[in-house]
């Protein structure tokens, strides 16, 4: 009886863990926010646009984790996700190569030319940063916060499918993208803080994470009061910032895996306002 009741529960609790270990968390967040931004701006995205974004995001994260887990990497910096990739390197290499070929085919045969041009610009910037991070990590960290750069690139790539279809109405999307970039930055900063030893030196945003999250939530709520189209999405963004602050308050009592999964799950708050995104 104990075995039959424990087995389904164990299977259910493993779903969020594999959502993270298989690098499906960031693609889910990107696709959801892309679709939500489009709905908030009154843009009817092709069904494949968020899926294409999700595939591209997944490939970036797969490449990053494979490179991070190469032999010779600093063992102290490796987490469960890196060890998982190291154990399953060949399957991920095969899936990654197949996914990359599929992505290229879709980009050149299914993507609108304007979107392809803007996506290419973001990709080239991301590629340069990606190469520098994996070859000149210390120099890059000295010039620019990795968490800030990742947050900005992630938010920009997420917004491109909507941005390219807005025509001259770009200004309507700018505040939302800027705040989403800040949310992604705080998400990365929180993860970096939680994965560091307790006595590790922290940046300002990491030391005062609840305060910075509170400021972001307050700004989003103020902007929501004056925005009709993006109101509900801005409130979802404020809720995500509040969830990150709550997680930080209790992070010393929670397991590293729970925190890592919860950090990205906190960014799924647009699911709460789906009835208003029409």
Automatic annotation (TrEMBL):
| TM stretches of this protein | 17-35, 42-61, 90-108, 120-136, 173-192, 208-226, 233-251
Is the ATP-binding keyword given for this protein?
A: no
State the UniProt keywords alphabetically.
Membrane, Transmembrane, Transmembrane helix
Asked whether the UniProt record includes Ribosomal protein among its keywords, one would answer no
Kindly provide the name given to this protein in its UniProt entry.
4-hydroxybenzoate polyprenyltransferase
Please tell me the species this chain comes from.
Answer: Acidipila rosea
Query: What phylogenetic lineage does the species belong to?
Result: Bacteria, Pseudomonadati, Acidobacteriota, Terriglobia, Terriglobales
